[in-house]
Every structure is written in structure tokens, then in C-alpha cells.
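Anyone up for a design puzzle?
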């Protein structure tokens, strides 16, 4: 039979601490003469009580009404028992999961970890600690420092000797863990992870490579697409403070930023060309996409890319405008020594050439200025023709290459009067001043060449 007990039937005692005992720096005991009307020869007074109720003691009787041999009370049965001597153990290679959460039925067991059930799954500790988890469909992808694994979610399976799933065998929260092929991991850089569709991108600093994981379980080194040496040196250098990755849904590119205390390199990988297409001048703390807008953060502030006409300007830095540069290598007929006579391009009219260097060491006069206004007089037309700048013809821009190489012993050069640079290939660097705050495009670059006669 149930009974209701009222609190008023209990007796409580309030014990207060003496101030001089509680205080860290007790004051000397004052004699009675310190009190108005006191006697100077009297015995010193008892120290005053403290005013901090939080340090007092409260004692409550265990028997109803405090009577002798009356009915006693206790706290009853505990639903959850806390260990008196808990032992902390860091299991860096183990997963643990709680009870279920169902918002429809109101069941919330996320704070329950029953030791009577099998609620842990461990991976090989030889591959380092678990750095990141990613759930995809019915699989849980587990990124360790030196290995990538997958585990079935909410089901279990029996595998053949070849590692192929044979049949379902029961129901488990985290099933058997199966490693992906290859000795790759995410090191200690979980922020390098980015995902788009079924493609996952991340870095392995210890092996100096950037990786892509597909839904078929294949891990590909995308850093080997023309940038193997660059990422090998950058990812294995000392002093790396942060490696940040993100997916740019505006351009459909994977953006990766490798940062040190004094420098950084931010590059983009394009799946359509299977290569690294651009370097950027912004240093992000975090990157992500929302619908078709690409965001990054810096110094705790959120920045939206591609959303304004302020090109080459990042994180509200009006006095720090970065120019856009494009480096082009022309090498038609690779085994033939050629003379590059002109430089031609298709695009907008604000591009200049800031550097021309041939494989032989020949250089040309720079900068080659951008195309100017249409001449309105014969004198202006004459001056336009003999200046080192781009001319426009049939909606294409071209300029002569004026050789300014120093005279080499044993070879005849004519200085600035000689047109063209000689070599197997020539590197041109185009530059655009972004202070114009307008979008400018560069479609194609070419050069008129002739085979060298000596």
C-alpha cells in the first residue's frame, strides 16, 4: 500500500561553522571592549559565525518525527549506480554508442551506456587513433591516422574468405569493420575532409599526398595529377599549423589550404579536367557550401565568395587587392627549337604580360601593356603601333616579343631590334589588375613561331 510522507514530519538541524575556522585569513579575536558597553578585562569573545550558508552543515533525522524507534527512512533503490572508484581509460581506437533516440515516440536513450550490452567496436590500434567518422547510406566510414575502414550500420553480415558479404546475420548497431585497400589515412588532419556526392577528399600528411575515396572503395592519389612534387614537399614540411579542405559547390572544385604560421597555399582540384587548376590568395579557417554559394571563415567572420564585384579582394581588405595571374607554357613541336615572335590571346582587353622567359634563357621586354583606346588621329595611330602593348585585330589581341636578352659570347644577338625569343618552350605570365572591379576573362593563348635556323 502506497503512503505519502510530508516533509514537515522531519526534523533538521542547522550547524554553522565559526568564521575564524572557515576563513583562510582569520581576524584576531576581539575582546568585549570592542563591543559597545563591553568590559576590557573580560574573557575574549567567541568568534562570529560565518555568513556563507554554502559551507554550513545540514543534518536531517532518519526517523519520522524524530521519535525514538519510529519508522526510519532511506533513499531507496538507485536506478543508476555510480562507481565509487571510477577508472578512466583512453581507448583511442574504439567506438562506443548509446541507446536509441526516436523523436516520434519520445524515446531518448542517448545518455544510457549499458555495460551489460556489447556497445563498443574497436579498430586496429597499430593504425593510430580514430580522427573522423562519416556516415554514408548504411555504412560508417572510419578514418584513422594510417587507415580507412568502413562498418555496417544497424546490421551485420557474414563474409566469405575472399572478403565478400554472404548473408545478413542479425541486427547490430555497428557491425563488422572492413578496411579499404591501401595504406592510407587522414593523419591528424580531419579538417582536410570534404565530400560531394559519393566522392570523399582528404589528405595524408605522413605520405605527402591528397586522396579521393569513391563509393567503390577505391582510394586515388589526386595529388599525382601534375602536382605530386608540390604536395609531397608542402605536406611533409615542418611547421604546418592547419590543413583545411572544403567543397566549392559554385565551381564544383575541391579547395585545399595548407597553412603554416608565416605562409599558406590554397589550391583547387577540378574533376572535369582531372587536375589542379588554380591557386588562391585567401587563407580560410573553415570552408563549406550552402546550395550554390561557397563560404569560408577567417578570424571568426563568415565570408561569401563570388557574391560581389570586388574581385581579388578577400575578408574585407580594401587596401589588400590581389592581382589575378595566369601562367601559360607554350610548347608546340616539343623537339624543335623555335623562335616565338608574338604573343596572342583571346579574352577581355585588360590583360598584361608581366614575364616572358624562354627555355634557352631568352627574355622579352615586359610589361606588355594592355590594349588601349582606339586612336583618333594619325599621330596617335603611329604611337600606338610602336609601343610595347597589345593591339587588337579581328577581336583578338596580339603583341610582338622584343628580345632583351644579354649578349651571350659566341652568339650574335641584336638586342631590342631583334623580335622573338628562342627555345623549345616559353613561359608567359599574364596579369590582371583587379582594382577595376570588373570581371575579365582569358580564353586562349597562342604564339606565332618559326623554326630556328641556328
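Challenge accepted. My sequence:
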Amino acid at each position: 500500500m502506497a503512503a505519502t510522507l510530508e516533509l514537515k514530519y522531519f526534523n533538521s538541524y542547522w550547524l554553522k561553522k565559526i568564521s575564524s575556522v572557515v576563513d583562510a585569513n582569520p581576524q584576531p579575536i576581539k575582546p568585549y571592549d570592542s563591543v559597545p558597553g563591553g568590559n576590557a578585562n573580560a574573557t575574549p569573545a567567541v568568534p562570529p559565525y560565518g555568513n556563507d550558508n554554502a559551507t554550513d552543515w545540514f543534518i536531517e533525522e532518519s526517523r519520522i518525527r524524530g521519535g525514538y524507534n519510529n519508522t526510519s527512512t532511506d533513499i531507496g533503490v538507485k536506478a543508476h549506480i555510480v562507481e565509487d572508484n571510477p577508472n578512466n581509460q583512453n581507448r583511442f581506437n574504439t567506438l562506443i554508442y548509446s541507446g536509441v533516440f526516436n523523436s516520434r515516440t519520445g524515446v531518448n536513450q542517448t545518455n544510457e551506456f549499458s555495460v551489460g550490452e556489447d556497445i563498443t567496436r574497436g579498430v586496429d590500434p597499430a593504425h593510430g587513433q580514430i580522427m573522423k567518422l562519416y556516415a554514408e547510406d548504411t555504412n560508417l566510414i572510419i578514418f584513422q591516422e594510417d587507415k580507412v575502414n568502413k562498418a555496417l550500420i544497424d546490421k551485420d553480415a557474414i563474409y566469405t574468405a575472399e572478403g565478400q558479404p554472404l548473408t545478413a546475420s542479425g541486427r547490430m548497431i555497428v557491425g563488422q569493420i572492413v578496411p579499404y585497400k591501401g595504406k592510407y589515412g587522414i593523419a591528424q588532419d580531419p579538417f582536410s575532409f570534404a565530400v560531394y556526392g559519393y566522392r570523399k577528399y582528404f589528405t595524408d600528411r605522413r605520405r605527402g599526398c591528397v586522396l579521393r575515396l569513391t563509393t567503390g572503395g577505391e582510394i586515388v592519389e589526386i595529388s599525382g595529377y601534375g602536382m605530386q612534387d608540390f604536395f609531397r614537399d608542402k605536406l611533409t614540411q615542418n611547421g604546418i599549423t592547419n590543413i583545411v579542405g572544403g567543397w566549392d559547390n559554385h565551381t564544383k572544385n575541391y579547395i585545399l589550404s595548407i597553412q603554416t604560421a608565416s605562409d599558406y597555399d590554397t589550391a583547387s582540384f577540378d574533376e572535369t579536367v582531372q587536375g589542379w587548376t588554380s591557386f588562391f590568395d585567401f587563407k580560410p579557417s573553415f570552408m563549406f557550401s550552402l546550395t550554390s554559394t561557397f563560404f569560408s571563415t577567417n578570424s571568426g567572420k563568415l565570408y561569401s565568395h563570388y557574391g560581389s564585384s570586388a574581385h581579388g579582394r578577400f575578408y574585407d581588405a580594401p587596401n589588400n587587392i590581389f592581382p589575378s595571374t595566369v601562367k601559360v607554357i607554350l610548347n608546340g613541336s616539343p623537339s624543335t627549337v623555335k623562335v616565338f615572335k608574338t604573343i596572342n590571346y583571346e579574352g577581355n582587353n585588360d590583360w598584361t604580360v608581366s614575364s616572358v622567359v624562354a627555355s634557352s634563357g631568352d627574355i622579352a621586354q615586359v610589361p606588355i601593356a594592355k590594349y588601349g583606346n582606339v586612336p583618333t588621329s594619325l599621330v596617335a595611330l603611329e604611337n600606338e603601333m610602336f609601343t610595347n602593348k597589345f593591339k587588337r585585330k579581328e577581336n583578338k589581341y596580339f603583341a610582338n616579343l622584343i628580345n632583351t636578352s644579354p649578349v651571350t659570347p659566341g652568339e650574335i644577338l641584336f638586342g631590342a631590334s631583334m623580335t622573338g625569343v628562342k627555345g623549345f618552350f616559353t613561359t608567359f605570365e599574364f596579369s590582371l589588375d583587379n582594382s577595376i572591379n570588373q570581371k575579365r576573362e582569358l580564353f586562349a593563348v597562342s604564339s606565332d613561331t618559326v623554326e630556328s635556323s641556328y
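A detail worth pointing out: The mean pLDDT is 81.
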